[in-house]
Design goal:
- This protein is mainly alpha-helical.
- It has one domain.
- 79% of the residues lie in helices and 0% in strands.
- The termini are far apart.
């Protein structure tokens, strides 16, 4: 078995080996901590995306204090719910392709798969919340930027974006596919298909659950 701290890093390089070593040894407390951290950072990321989506949406006009309290309250619920719901759904959708792995084993794979996304959030969120607004203020509060800066930005984009995007978004997705295929004992294609089915079912159920609550609270999603 890998030494206790190493799965935080080994899952990046050797996801299949990491899962085989830790599938029966991941403490439930550690799994819950990973899920809570994932939920908090995911809610923070979603809040930033929604605030930028439309300036006159109700989300864009949230007070600054909400940026702190909403992730603290909703983040743990979101992360833990996602962990157990997706693991349960994967155990169901995996059976379509012949997998008979329990939800507990899949829970370990889902938890390990959250770790690369944690690093991705930790790197991208400071840019979204601090660096990007600072650059906006330095430019006088307008979206248009000087021509010289455009040239520099284009050079950085062409040079750094593929590496940045690959490390922070593409590779974590590949890691998750490898973990799930190892856990389900399936090839990558049926494992990925079962994961997509599980996500679609989860989103559908979440929307069906959220719409009546939004109606009772009088919240409209039309402004998004």
């Amino acid at each position: 078995m890998l030494a206790q701290p190493k799965f935080w890093f080994s899952v990046w390089r050797r996801p299949r080996v990491t899962y085989r070593c830790w599938r029966d040894y991941l403490p439930t407390k550690t799994i819950i901590i990973i899920a809570i951290l994932f939920g908090v950072l995911a809610v923070l990321s979603d809040m930033n995306d929604l605030r930028e989506l439309k300036e006159d949406s109700w989300y864009a006009n949230l007070p600054r204090a909400a940026i702190i309290w909403i992730p603290i309250v909703l983040g743990p619920i979101t992360g833990v719910s996602w962990l157990y719901a997706i693991a349960g759904l994967l155990s169901i959708t995996g059976r379509i392709f012949g997998s008979k792995i329990s939800a507990k084993r899949l829970r370990d794979a889902v938890a390990l798969g959250m770790i690369p996304w944690l690093y991705s959030f930790i790197i991208t969120l400071p840019f979204s919340y601090f660096i990007e607004p600072m650059m906006f203020r330095l430019n006088g509060g307008v979206d248009t930027i000087p021509v010289n800066f455009d040239i520099i930005k284009l050079g950085l984009f062409l040079g750094a974006f593929p590496l940045f995007f690959g490390l922070l978004f593409v590779w974590p997705a590949i890691v998750n596919i490898k973990l799930l295929s190892q856990a389900q004992k399936l090839n990558w294609l049926p494992s990925t298909t079962s994961a997509m089915l599980a996500v679609v079912i989860f989103i559908t159920l979440a929307v069906m659950f959220a719409l009546p609550i939004a109606a009772v609270l009088g919240v409209s999603f039309a402004g998004w």
